[in-house]
Amino acid sequence: MMTPNIFSFRLMASDGAARRGEIVTPHGPVQTPAFMAVGTQATVKGVPFDEVRKGGADIVLANTYHLMLRPGAERIAALGGLHTFMNWSGPILTDSGGFQVMSLSELRKLSDKGVTFRSHIDGAMVELSPERAIEIQALLGADISMQLDECIKLPNTRAELDRAMRLSLAWAERSKRAFEGRARDGYALFGIVQGGDDAALRAESARRLIDLGFHGYAIGGLAVGEPQAVMLKIVEDVTPQLPADRPRYLMGVGTPEDLLEAVARGIDMFDCVLPTRNGRHGAAFTRFGQINLDNARHRDDPRPLDETSTYHATRTYSRAYLHHLVRAQEILGATLLSAINLAYYQSLMAGMRDAIAAGRFAGFRAATKAGWASGDLPAA
Fold first, then answer.
1. Closest C-alpha to 286, from 267, 271, 307, 270
2. What share of the chain is helix, strand, coil (3-state, %, to 5)?
3. Which residues are catalytic?
4. Nearest alpha carbon to residue 206 among 142, 266, 153
5. pLDDT of 225-268, one tens digit each?
6. Rg for the chain (alpha carbons), in Å?
7. Domain boundary among 252, 271, 290
8. Is residue 380 in a domain?
9. pTM of the predicted structure, to 2 decimals
10. Fewest CB atoms within 10 A around its CB: which of 63, 149, 249, 310?
11. Residue (of 151, 222, 219, 148) closest to 189 by Cα position
12. Are residues 204 and 114 in the same domain?
């Protein structure tokens, strides 16, 4: 007999390659296409989780590498797990730490066994193997765990792309073996397709991961320096090769346009730091495109960013006030703009879900891009 909320994915509608679905996890459902707010260190930077939820988020992401260093996975487990620790009752996906294999390359040593890091916090040596990555994610209580992989920068040589892809496949097999007990309890493990910008390597990676069998499949190793056109071509090549009955996750992506275009090519899940990072730097994502609140033209503008928004801060705080907060470097400015940006991303995803279900995704895509291109009119 199946337990309630055992992991599953249901494809509810398609419109071209775009997909509308629902993921069920032990901590509740996720409507797809979905954007996951990035809570790397058990916090979405500057935004309380009740505001993350009010903005429309079903699921958030946390990071294995950072949380194993501070405060420690065992400590979080002793305190009731990550959901209790950070007061988020919804689903959580945990990245395995593979991205840090690339971003902290000066602080690590790589072998077939795993990765040895020198902690960026205190210099201590820390080992992260596929098995330890799965153990940490289990201690955290992640609804969806990721295999440990090696993410490398683009462009790169084919020899390097091939080496990293094959190492990631070996780690995928070990990750799956280590995960068997959690799979029986209804949790999920995703495999990660690697291979850089080489179509043949991507195809081999996808094929072998499917042979291993995962609950979902991610496309990793993108948004690492390649042009958008290259990224979208890889997505377009890979998604038709992935099982239609499993969720597809494009890791670390991206701008609103990236999300719109990737959904058009069959992607179901995303995460990116842009909404909060840009918010901390005074920029707001809106249906008119990105608005720079540091710009002096907002100084005397009493209008909200978007009076039609369903998110309270977007339609109630004036541009003049947000401009003042940004110029005065007040923390509230970063908090409000980060929350506003997260809510816009969720509104964009909700719009795509509705459009796919109604069979009008192409029209929604064109109208959304036209709105960004038209820009926002200054105050009268």
1. 307
2. 45, 20, 35
3. 95, 271
4. 266
5. 899 999 999 999 999 999 999 999 999 999 999 999 999 999 99
6. 21
7. 271
8. no
9. 0.96
10. 310
11. 148
12. yes
